[in-house]
Specification:
CATH topology of the largest domain in chain A: Rossmann fold
Radius of gyration of chain B: 19 Å
Radius of gyration of chain A: 19 Å
CATH topology of the largest domain in chain B: Fumarate Reductase Iron-sulfur Protein, Chain B, domain 2
Shape of chain B: elongated
Number of domains of chain B: 2
Number of helices of chain B: 10
Distance between the termini of chain A: 34 Å
Strand order of the largest sheet of chain A: 2-1-3-4
Distance between the termini of chain B: 15 Å
Helix content of chain B: 40-55%
Helix content of chain A: 40-55%
Structural class of chain B: mainly alpha
Largest sheet of chain B: none
Number of domains of chain A: 2
Order of helices and strands of chain A: EHHEHEHHEHHEHHEHEHEHH
Number of strands of chain A: 8
Largest interface: A-B, 62 and 60 residues
CATH architecture of the largest domain in chain A: 3-Layer(aba) Sandwich
Oligomer: heterodimer
Largest sheet of chain A: 4 strands, parallel
Number of strands of chain B: 0
CATH superfamily of the largest domain in chain B: Alpha-helical ferredoxin
Strand content of chain A: 5-15%
Order of helices and strands of chain B: HHHHHHHHHH
Amino acid sequence: MNKYALFLGCTTPTKVFQYELASRWVCRYFGIELIDIEDFVCCGINQVNLSIETGLLMAAMNLALAEAKELDILTLCAACTGALAETIEKLNDVTIRNGINEKLRNVGLEYKGKIKVKHISRVLYEDIGVEKIKREVNKDLSGLQVAPHYGCHYLKPKSAFGGFEEPDNPKSLHQLISVTGAHLVEYETLGLCCGGKVFPVSENLVDSLVQKKLDDLMNKEVDAMVLQCQTCYLMYSDRQKEINKEYAKLYSLPVLLYPQLLGLALGANPVKELGLNLHTVSVDRVLEKIT
Amino acid sequence: MNKVKRTPEIKQSVSSSELEPNFKSEVLAHTDVQGLNACFSCGTCSAGCPIHEVFPEYNPKKLAKMVSLGMKRQVLNSPYIWYCATCRNCEQRCPQNVKFFNILNALKNMAAKEGYAPAVWIEQTKQVIKTGMVFPTEKSWVKKREELSLPFLKEGHPELKKIIELTGIDKIKPKVDTE
């Protein structure tokens, strides 16, 4: 069944419109029906800082809302993916589940434990598959050198994803990029975290992490980073301007969200359908290399 | 600019009279932290921690040891417990299957109850209670979504407010910055 409730999270629909545009376009292309549920709320991942229970309750509320419509959830944000998937795992414990359901009952909801949560990349990888994607590619991306970045919560906690990936040696995004015809760049800091979750507490911790990865990539022949989470995107792309100012650097590395790269390979309109005009770091040099 | 606070590392000897032996069991009372007893301080958590690499004062191995020793006041009052980037390498790579990430969340929850949480997280929770998301509604993005023909986002979620307040998170007070 290629039908999912679309879980937008907080950041994508308010700050990274191009991720939502391109994701909706790619899903439509492959016949994945997305249902918008207007009652969805924040996934709760940051509330865990103050109260683990609140985080669970918020995630469970979203799960219950999708369950009531008999839909699985498709996510865009890596962190929402991790938070929702981990909540499903934690709510397998009957005592915890009963405690959460007791609260959910106040708003007429119940979590039953019949739902799956999948990130859009995993849906493309598992439901559509690289073979089918390959048959649809109609643009030549072979002139592009692309560096993947997974996003920590897409991979961890491993137990919440049923062994989908080996977190220290992930493969799905590599294969999804490869199938577009773009070349993969291997680099040492592949697994390095973007730091996005500590950004509200300390910007300069994030800047240190971001610069480590950007420095690694600037030493290589790379046309773009390709990632699959809007928070990682904001750290690696929009943060470049701030870092250049604050630390006298000259970073100008284009950063794409995976559905944008795939959309380009499938011949989507770069502006109208993929929002490539909305990037703060110009992606013109990527577009120039596509024939 | 939000600079990290560097305070001198705790290197002085710790008097046993200042320790709170029950601290460890208080932490262990949280779910998914039981593995702490299996920690033998090998340091794999700190070795794989990206924050520790750029800011050595944030040290998972040391925090785990401080919990085991009962250094409650020093741990809960430490600004460092809020510097985790949540990458989860620590638990992923631990040879003893200690869930340090969960331990840290339990510590942050305990610290928050005692009034040590950074204001930014309390403000964000208030925002979530108000709009259902971590950001306030802004005309600029409402307009942009319209321009791009993206669906309207519902504003305000009274059901969320109703259940979230049952957890008591709305009663948590932020740390008063004395600096």
